[in-house]
Design brief:
Layout lengths: L1 H21 L15 H5 L17 H30 L10 H8 L1 H6 L1 H4 L12
Helix pairs in contact: 1-3
C-alpha cells in the first residue's frame, strides 16, 4: 500500500513539475482527488483534479514524460532504501560480528597483533620458514 501511495504521489509530482515548467506554478490536487484524478493524469491531462486555472498548462507529452522520469527516480530511491534497510536489519544481515572497538576491548592490542594471522589470514599471511 505504501508503494502504491508513493507511486500516486510521484505521478502528481511529475505533473506539478511539468506545469511549473510550463508556467502554471506548483499545483497539487486535494486529498479527496488524489486517486480519482489518476486516470485523467495518466492519459496526459495536466488539469486533472486541479482547481480551475487560467495559466498555461503543460502539454500531454510533457506531463507523461515528466511522470515517467519522476516515477523512475522514486523507484530508484525506494530500491536503494530497501536494499540498505534489508542489509542492515533484514534476514540476510551479518550477525555475531564484533566491531573494531569490541574486539580491542576483549582481546587487547597486544593479543590482537600477536594473533593477527589467525584472526585475518587474508591480511596477515603466516610466514613459513625456509629449511
Amino acid at each position: 500500500m505504501a508503494v502504491l501511495l508513493i507511486a500516486a504521489l510521484a505521478a502528481h509530482l511529475g505533473r506539478a513539475v511539468a506545469n511549473r515548467i510550463a508556467g502554471a506554478g506548483w499545483a497539487f490536487p486535494d486529498r479527496a482527488d488524489l486517486f480519482t484524478s489518476l486516470p485523467g493524469l495518466l492519459t496526459g491531462d495536466a488539469a486533472a483534479g486541479l482547481p480551475a486555472t487560467t495559466a498555461p498548462l503543460a502539454t500531454a507529452d510533457t506531463v507523461l514524460t515528466l511522470i515517467v522520469v519522476v516515477e523512475l527516480m522514486v523507484l530508484t530511491a525506494v530500491s536503494v532504501v530497501l536494499k540498505v534497510g534489508l542489509g542492515r536489519w533484514g534476514p540476510g544481515r551479518m550477525r555475531g560480528m564484533a566491531s573494531r572497538s569490541e574486539a580491542k576491548q576483549l582481546l587487547g592490542r597486544t593479543r590482537l597483533r600477536r594473533n593477527a594471522p589467525i584472526i585475518r589470514p587474508d591480511l596477515y599471511p603466516t610466514r613459513r620458514r625456509r629449511g
